[in-house]
Design goal:
The chain is mainly alpha-helical. About 75% of the residues lie in helices and about 0% in strands. One of its GO terms (cellular component) is plasma membrane.
Length: about 300
């Protein structure tokens, strides 16, 4: 349980680090992924040949999964420029719900009544957060929308990558999608005319912290824990991130919660909790897989 707590705290720092840097979010996300891949190299070289055995369809899914992950980072991290940490991370907790909806559409996977009820409660909570943020400013609502779209993107990443997990090891899959996502973000940065160098020392520090803390100490630990804990227990950690991030934002950024944010956040997280608990086979969510969970 101590190791699980460490991982939850680690991923909770992701949104804080993003707020600490003024660099374009595409640059931040790109360096986060590429720095992580550099740290992974000693473990990847042994299994790198796996990627050369993929067929055309599997390669296409891999590229699509990586592109969706890059889009997730771009949208979610950009949301933090407009809305609070509490609102942005609360919407990210909807990932397992969106994965279920996508799986139903793509694979006709049916869900139980309790999962549908949990999803409905979570959606009501999400709408309430958006309504409350609209009262604060239209800009905050824009950030909420970006977070929702970013959550949809990471859900697509998970769905596209689902069939690849039997063909690639976790390390190889992670390395490949990180490389593709980083490439997509690099291309976007070139189109936007962002500088790749010349950032302040604090920005480079944030890039490195994003790679080491939420990715290595967060996502990779979750992936490792899957060897010793059931997927449902690990996936419940998705509920820990908005709580941990909100507490950290209060002390480190001075962001206070409004009454609506608090009430709606509890409703949203409660709905996701019911949703996950209703199925003992629930897949691991958003920032929850070093490799499968590369989100936030």
């Amino acid at each position: 349980m101590f190791i699980l707590a460490v991982a939850i705290i680690a991923i909770s720092f992701s949104s804080i680090f993003v707020k600490w840097s003024a660099a374009p979010v595409a640059i931040m996300a790109m360096y986060r992924l590429w720095m992580t891949n550099v740290l992974m190299l000693p473990f990847v070289w042994r299994k790198g040949s796996e990627m050369f055995t993929l067929g055309g369809k599997a390669t296409g899914l891999l590229v699509g999964s990586g592109a969706a992950l890059g889009l997730h980072f771009l949208l979610w991290m950009e949301s933090l420029r407009y809305t609070s940490v509490a609102s942005s991370t609360a919407f990210m907790a909807l990932e397992p719900v969106m994965v279920m909806l996508g799986s139903y559409w793509a694979f006709q996977q049916r869900s139980s009544l309790s999962r549908i009820i949990g999803m409905a409660v979570a959606v009501v909570g999400a709408i309430a957060i958006g309504w409350g943020d609209w009262g604060l400013s239209p800009q905050a609502l824009q950030g909420d929308l970006l977070s929702v779209l970013g959550t949809a993107a990471v859900a697509l990443h998970m769905i596209l990558g689902q069939s690849l997990r039997s063909k690639l090891s976790s390390v190889s899959y992670s390395f490949a999608v990180f490389a593709v996502a980083g490439g997509v973000l690099a291309l976007y940065s070139l189109i936007q005319g962002y500088a790749f160098f010349g950032y302040k020392a604090v920005d480079w520090g944030v890039f490195a912290l994003l790679a080491v803390v939420p990715t290595i100490l967060g996502h990779y630990i979750f992936n490792w824990l899957l060897k010793y804990m059931d997927a449902t227990s690990v996936s419940m950690s998705v509920l820990g991130e908005p709580i941990g991030a909100t507490i950290l934002a209060y002390f480190l950024l001075g962001e206070a919660l409004t009454a609506i944010q608090l009430g709606a956040g509890v409703l949203l997280i409660g709905g996701v909790w019911l949703f996950i608990r209703s199925n003992g086979q629930q897949a691991v969510p958003h920032e929850v897989d070093a490799v499968t969970k590369e989100s936030a």
